[in-house]
UniProtKB/TrEMBL annotation:
Annotated segments matching region Disordered: 1-57
Protein name: ABC transporter (ATP-binding protein) (Modular protein)
Keyword set, alphabetical order: ATP-binding, Nucleotide-binding, Transport
Biased composition (Basic and acidic residues): 1-14
Length: 281
C-alpha cells in the first residue's frame, strides 16, 4: 500500500473513541413521543436460527432497564423496564417507529449512555456498574457500532478510518496495515484504501464503516438503522453484507431497522413501542 493509512497528511493521528463512536450516537433532540403501534403477540424467527442452538449463557442480558430524559412535565421515558436476553452469536433485529427508543436502547447497551435503573451485562460484565474509564474500555474492546450516517471521519482515508480501533488498542503499524487491508477486502473495498469518505458513494462509505466495526474483532455489534440513508439496491447489498459477516464472525449483533429484508435476515425480531420491548407481530 503506497500512502496507506499513514494518511494524505503524512502524520500519525490519535483519536479518542468518544470522537469516533460518539459522533452520531450523541445526537439527541427532545422530540414528542410517537404513539406507535401496540405490541403484538407472536415472534418472528428465522428458520434455522443459530440463537436457539446456543447453550451457554446470554452474551447480552438486560434486566428492567429504564431511561428517562429530562424531568418534570417535559420528561420523556425512552425505555420502560426493558428486559432482554441475547445468546452469543444471535443476530437480533429491533424494529420500531421513530422515537420508540431504539437508539436509546443501543446507546445504553454499548455504554454510550447510562440507564437510570436496571442492569445490563455484556459478555458477563456489568455495564451498569462500570466507571467512565471502564465504559471506554468496553467500547474499545468489546463493542462496535455502525450508524445510519456512517460516522466516518471526513479527513481520513478509508484505510485510516478502518484502522482507528486498532490504533486505540495499540496494535503495531505492520499488523494494523495487514488487518486493515484484510478488513477492506472483506467488504469489497480493497481498491479504495486511499479515498476519503467524500470520494466514496454512500454504500461504499457504509462498507468502510462496517470494516471499521469488524476490524477489532468485537464481541458485540450494534447497528442503528445501518441502511437508513441508502437507496434500496445499495441497502440490500449492505444488508446482505452485514448478515454474512455476522454469521462468519459468530459475533452477537443487535440491529435496529425498519427494513423488511434486514428483518428477514435476523434470527429474531423484537418490536419496541414507546420504550417497551415486545415480540414482533
Ligand atoms: N437527549 C434527549 N433529550 C430528551 N429526549 C430525548 C433525548 N434523546 C431521545 N429522546 C427522546 O426519547 C425517545 C426515544 O428516542 P430514540 O432516539 O431512542 O428513538 P428512536 O426509536 O431511535 O428514534 P429514531 O428512529 O427517530 O432515531 C423519543 O421520544 C426522543 O424524543
Amino acid at each position: 500500500m503506497s500512502e496507506g493509512y499513514r494518511g494524505r497528511y503524512g502524520r500519525e493521528e490519535s483519536y479518542s473513541d468518544d470522537v469516533i463512536f460518539g459522533a452520531d450516537a450523541s445526537r439527541k433532540d427532545p422530540r414528542p413521543q410517537d404513539p406507535g403501534p401496540q405490541e403484538g403477540p407472536g415472534r418472528h424467527t428465522r428458520p434455522g436460527a443459530r440463537g436457539s442452538a446456543v447453550s451457554s449463557g446470554p452474551f447480552v442480558e438486560v434486566e428492567t432497564v429504564t431511561k428517562t430524559y429530562g424531568s418534570g412535565e417535559t420528561a420523556v421515558t425512552a425505555l420502560h423496564e426493558v428486559s432482554l436476553s441475547v445468546p452469543p452469536g444471535e443476530f437480533l433485529a429491533i424494529q420500531g417507529r421513530s422515537g420508540s427508543g431504539k437508539t436509546t436502547l443501543l446507546n445504553v447497551l454499548g455504554g454510550l449512555d447510562r440507564a437510570d435503573s436496571g442492569r445490563i451485562r455484556v459478555g458477563g460484565a456489568d455495564v451498569t456498574a462500570m466507571s467512565d474509564d471502564e465504559l471506554l474500555a468496553l467500547r474499545r474492546d468489546q463493542v462496535a457500532y455502525i450508524f445510519q450516517g456512517f460516522g466516518l471521519l471526513p479527513i481520513l482515508t478509508a484505510a485510516e478510518n478502518v484502522g482507528i480501533p486498532l490504533r486505540l488498542k495499540g496494535i503495531d503499524p505492520t499488523d494494523r496495515e495487514e488487518r486493515v487491508r484484510a478488513a477492506l477486502a472483506h467488504v469489497g473495498l480493497e481498491q479504495h484504501p486511499n479515498q476519503t469518505p467524500a470520494e466514496l458513494s454512500g454504500g461504499q462509505q457504509q462498507r468502510v464503516a462496517i470494516a471499521r466495526a469488524l476490524v477489532g474483532g468485537p464481541g458485540l455489534l450494534l447497528a442503528d438503522e445501518p441502511t437508513g440513508q441508502l437507496d434500496s439496491a445499495t441497502a440490500r447489498e449492505i444488508m446482505d453484507l452485514i448478515g454474512r459477516l455476522v454469521r462468519e464472525t459468530g459475533m452477537t449483533a443487535i440491529v435496529t431497522t425498519h427494513d423488511p429484508i434486514l428483518l428477514s435476515l435476523a434470527d429474531r425480531v423484537l418490536e419496541i413501542t414507546d420504550g417497551r420491548l415486545g415480540e414482533s407481530p
